[in-house]
Design a protein that fits this description.
The protein is built from 9 helices and 10 strands. The chain is of the alpha+beta class and 310 residues long. The protein folds into 2 domains: 4-135, 2-Layer Sandwich (60s Ribosomal Protein L30, Chain: A); 150-292, PurM-like C-terminal domain (Phosphoribosyl-aminoimidazole Synthetase, Chain A, domain 2).
Length: 310
Amino acid sequence: MPSEFALINRYFKCPTPNTVLGVGDDGAILQPTSGCELVVSTDMLVAGTHFLPNADPADLGWKVLAVNVSDMAAMGAQPKWALLAAALPAATESWIEKFASGFFACADAFGIDVIGGDTTQGPRNFCVTIFGEVPAGTALLRSGAQSGDEIWISGAPGRAAQGLAHLQGQITLSEPALTDCLAALHRPQPRVALGLALRGLASAAIDVSDGLLADLGHILDASGVTATLKLAVSPAPTFAEQCFLSGGDDYELVFTVPAGRHEEVLTLSKTLCLPLTCLGNVTTGSALTVLDLSGQPVAISHRGYDHFGA
């Protein structure tokens, strides 16, 4: 059986052109771009909580990094460096090789240097720490939403949750929805280009990891405001509509923009070939309100995922 260091050298040591010193020492050496601030984030993915134990290793490798790249997108940061810490039940080379192929495919797609990490034996889980850069003073925050701002969402949230529900036997999807929803679940596409374009345009932003309503709620709380949404959902939402509202695992961006810049967002949507949908407006008040298109209140039974069920 190969040693820990043999596995690292074989599967996780790659060229790092944006790094002074990468894998192989006690630490990496980075040289941030002059005039930029560093943005740092970390996420842990645990078998049975964040992914199914029988998940395809190449898909899992992609997703482990992609969910962290999405945090950079939400901050308007260019992702540049990542570290991977992994616990594995066994040094099964065929599994590790596929996982590494997916992980580095994501790294290559977004120009990220993988600069180190750690491995150990244990129940399968992964923790990535990612670093990005943003010109000083331009990072997108959760705390900038103002009353009157429009609320926008990228892409089509809810597909990943439907894909997971299919795999768990809660629903049965048929083609082409099945392929689409499983792709959203297994290979999320971080909206980095959108995040970069939102610098100076969005007043606040966050990525949708725990559910649209839950994550929008973080913006509203941080900004000291609330919101009214008017959506194409039923007063008693269907399963698909509930997935849209609170399913999570989409890694789309929800963001707020001053109402006077509506046309700029529509132009951006065309430029990026990415659907951007206006959901409603930031308001002052006591609580987030969701209305259907006829103006009737929508009964929300669940707003998103919480690790400890609060």
